[in-house]
Write a structure and sequence with these properties.
The chain is an alpha+beta fold and about 300 residues long. About 45% of the residues lie in helices and about 20% in strands.
Length: about 300
């Protein structure tokens, strides 16, 4: 009996490796390990029950991968990681979240699961990646995460990070906003996605001109051309008589070698005698008053 039990434990430990050390009761049954065998291992303090359907095949602490599988198994069929948790599973880093977010179709009622946040959604065609733990595709997950965020600032971060880290493209985010219609901050999310996808370009400059009008500032010149040793340099906006320049950075301005080009350009303008204020377009959306206070002070 002891030899058989030891063999089953080794079999379970090997099977649990791809799942971070956990197995569902269904997978255990497939291995020939029934509820009584599980109960004996738990009573002997070799395994831990971490839910109604999930067993940890050791007595350590569940890691991130194990927690994801537990969330899916405990919440039942038609469940997938979504929002921040789907972004983490896709490789996005730079944002921490204590609970696991999953989504399920609206038709099913889900019982509460400790440490898991269940969102009832209308599924989009082909939105779930089934390789590994079931998860929503990153672009859709990012848009949903922005709608579920606790603040506008957090929403912006969750849209910017996956693009900056090359997990999704701007065009994929735009497409996702056409199919995912959140209840919160719908207009802001659409605007932020366009900003992230398009960069500053004319959109940010036109919006900045409108902010200047509201503050009673004269309209600045846009796309001012300056000559440099490396050729023409285009400044986003400039008040020529004041020698005041405002640069409006889209999300892509701080990627790769773009930061080097931006620094060289700004240094040349400053050496030439201009004051340069640098704003990012996403920040301008979230806290326009603080940015415009600085413009007024410089003006």
């Amino acid at each position: 009996m002891g030899t058989l039990a030891s063999a089953r434990r080794r079999l379970a430990a090997t099977a649990a490796e791809p799942y971070g050390g956990v197995l569902s009761r269904a997978l255990l049954n497939d291995l020939g390990i029934d509820r009584k065998a599980v109960a004996r291992e738990v009573a002997a303090e070799r395994w831990l029950l971490v839910g109604s359907h999930t067993v940890l095949t050791n007595t350590g602490v569940m890691g991130e991968r194990a927690g994801r599988w537990r969330a899916v198994w405990e919440c039942g069929p038609d469940v997938a990681l979504d929002g921040v948790s789907a972004l983490h599973a896709a490789g996005v880093r730079g944002f921490d979240e204590m609970c696991v977010h999953v989504s399920a179709s609206r038709e099913r009622h889900r019982r509460p699961v400790d440490g898991v946040r269940v969102h009832r959604v209308t599924r989009v065609s082909n939105e779930i990646v089934t390789a590994g733990v079931p998860r929503v595709r990153p672009a859709i997950a990012a848009v949903r995460a922005a709608h579920w965020a606790t603040s506008d600032r957090q929403a912006a971060l969750l849209l910017v990070l996956p693009v900056q880290q090359r997990i999704v493209t701007g065009s994929q985010l735009v497409a996702a906003t056409e199919s995912v219609h959140g209840r919160r901050r719908r207009q802001l999310v659409r605007q932020l996605v366009r900003d992230v996808a398009d960069g500053a370009q004319s959109l940010g400059e036109l919006d900045f001109a409108a902010l200047c009008r509201r503050r009673g500032l004269p309209a600045p010149d846009r796309q001012v051309v300056r000559q440099s040793p490396r050729g023409r340099v285009y400044l986003d906006v400039r008040w020529s008589t004041l020698r005041l320049v405002v640069e409006i950075d889209g999300a892509g301005h701080r990627w790769g070698l773009a930061v080097t080009d931006d620094n060289l350009r700004q240094n040349r303008v400053v050496i030439g005698g201009d004051v340069v204020l640098r704003f990012d377009l996403v920040g301008l959306r979230l806290t326009p008053d603080e940015f415009m206070d600085q413009v007024c002070q410089a003006h």
